[in-house]
Structures are given as structure tokens and as C-alpha cells.
Specification:
Blueprint: E1 2-5, E2 12-15, E3 21-25, H1 28-34, E4 39-45, E5 49-53, E6 58-64, E7 67-72, E8 78-83, E9 86-93, E10 105-109
Parallel strand pairs: 3-10
Antiparallel strand pairs: 1-2, 2-5, 3-4, 4-9, 6-7, 7-8, 8-9
């Protein structure tokens, strides 16, 4: 079991599965949504994710048709994204986890549109678009 919460602590959650892969997304939308060089996320099963507190504080923004980014309406912490075409899965923002993880599989996607000032300094697989 993994746990996590937003910056202000209003929203907390439990995840009843292991994280097997971290995806570093370098697309422009993820950079803008996080205010950083890339988004760090893990694909999880929606039915293994449980909100423990703060459901009323969750806000949603549709960044493109059918893609919804959920975040804390108080502190702005991005929590996860959901897609209408994949209701069984979420993309959890792993920076909100309390529990340490270190999955062996880590990949970069959309590196063709990464920030010009960013240098990738690891040996993880890199994909110009999605994988």
C-alpha cells in the first residue's frame, strides 16, 4: 500500500498497487501544468486508487478533449489525470507520494518537444513521442 497527499494536506489518498514504471513526459502541456521541465507520473489502476480525504477540494481542468487534470483547489498540487477513453486508468503524479518508491523501469516520452534548456542526463529509454 502506498499513500500520498497534496502540498497543503487537504487531499490524501491510498494506492493499493505497486508502481512498476515512472514516465517522464516532456510535452508542452505537461511542462505548463507542472511549471517544470517534465511531468513525473505512473500509470495506475483507477480501482486501486482511494481518496482518503479532501474530495471536495479536488478541481479538474480539461487540457484537451477527453483529458482531465485533477488537482487540489487550495494549494494547486497536481494529483492525477484521467482520460475518457481509458476510464480504468489514472496517471498519478508521483511527487505527491509519501511512500518511497524506486521502480527499475523509467522512461522519457515526448523528448522531441522537451524544453530547449533541458539536458537529459540519464540512460533511460527516450521516445520522441509516446511509446
Amino acid at each position: 500500500m502506498l499513500t500520498g497527499h497534496c502540498l497543503c494536506g487537504r487531499i490524501s489518498y491510498r494506492l493499493d498497487q505497486d508502481i512498476e514504471r515512472i514516465i517522464f513526459c516532456h510535452c508542452e502541456k505537461c511542462r505548463r501544468a507542472t511549471g517544470t521541465a517534465f511531468n513525473s507520473a505512473a500509470l495506475i489502476d483507477a480501482d486501486k486508487f482511494t481518496l482518503l480525504s479532501g474530495k471536495e477540494s479536488i478541481k479538474s481542468f480539461s487540457s484537451s478533449p477527453g483529458v482531465h487534470r485533477l488537482f487540489c483547489g487550495e494549494c494547486g498540487s497536481p494529483l492525477y489525470s484521467a482520460r475518457d477513453a481509458q476510464p480504468q486508468s489514472y496517471r498519478l503524479r508521483i511527487g505527491t507520494l509519501d511512500t518511497p518508491i524506486n521502480p527499475e523501469e523509467k522512461i522519457h516520452i515526448f523528448v522531441a518537444s522537451k524544453a530547449a534548456w533541458e539536458t537529459l542526463c540519464d540512460d533511460y529509454p527516450k521516445h520522441d513521442a509516446s511509446f
